[in-house]
């Protein structure tokens, strides 16, 4: 069972997100584009740890990112707090898909708080305005043991 968009909006606002009406969707809340980065060195995923490789921020021109084909890391524009008994999923706006682009996203754990990131795959050159809606977050009810306490907790806040 998924929460309504109104319930997702209430949870995000309780976590400090400032939402405009266009972000409020029937089944979730649209997240906006905060910043774009290009990976500059190798990261590490090992059995006992991980490290995110350095990245360089892409400059917006007149508030717009003009992105050529390739892989980017995006930071969303809103802080997110995933309530207990919920799991979060972020899906790309279909307009990205219709323009040969997409977002790759992972699980948003109960108890996570922060300004999250995702992988933007640009299959054809695209222009995206900073602050434009790029994704939708939905919440599903979920059992869980414990809450998120990893090193991304509090990122970007
Ligand atoms: O697309 C996503 C998915 C999740 N998150 C946030 C919320 C999630 O709770 C946290 C950690 O995600 P995950 O557990 O998948 O990352 P990990 O690499 O396993 O990190 P950790 O070892 O801290 O669990 O990152 C994002 O920013 N973007």
Q: Tell me, rounded to a whole number, the average pLDDT.
A: 97
The dominant shape is globular
Rounded radius of gyration (Å): 16 Å
Q: Would you count the extended β strands for me? A: 13
Number of domains: 1
* Main sheet makeup: 7 strands, antiparallel
At CATH level 3, the topology is: Deoxyuridine 5'-Triphosphate Nucleotidohydrolase, Chain A
Task: Enumerate how many helices there are, as a single number.
Answer: 2
How much of the polypeptide forms β-strand, as a percent range?
Answer: 35-45%
Structural class: mainly beta
CATH superfamily: Deoxyuridine triphosphatase (dUTPase)
Low-pLDDT runs = none
What fraction, in percent, of the residue positions are helical? Answer: under 10%
Q: What is the end-to-end distance?
A: 29 Å
CATH architecture: Distorted Sandwich
Order of helices and strands: HEEEEEEEEHEEEEE
Q: Cofactors and ligands present?
A: deoxyuridine-5'-triphosphate
CATH class: Mainly Beta
GO molecular function: hydrolase activity
Protein name: Deoxyuridine 5'-triphosphate nucleotidohydrolase
Keywords: Hydrolase, Nucleotide metabolism
Pfam families: DCD (PF22769)
């Amino acid at each position: 069972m998924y929460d309504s968009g109104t319930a997702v909006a209430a949870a995000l606002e309780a976590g400090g997100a400032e939402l405009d009406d266009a972000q409020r969707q029937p089944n979730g809340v649209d997240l906006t584009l905060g910043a774009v980065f290009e990976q500059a060195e190798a990261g590490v995923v090992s059995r006992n740890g991980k490290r995110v490789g350095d990245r360089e921020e892409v400059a917006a021109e007149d508030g717009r990112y003009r992105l050529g084909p390739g892989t980017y890391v995006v930071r969303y524009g809103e802080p997110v707090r995933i309530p207990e008994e919920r799991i979060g999923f972020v899906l790309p706006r279909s307009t990205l898909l219709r323009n040969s682009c997409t977002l790759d996203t992972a699980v948003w754990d109960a108890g996570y708080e922060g300004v999250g990131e995702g992988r933007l795959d640009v299959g054809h050159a695209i222009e995206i305005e900073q602050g434009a809606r790029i994704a939708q977050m939905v919440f599903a009810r979920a059992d869980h043991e414990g809450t998120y306490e990893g090193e991304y907790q509090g990122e970007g806040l």
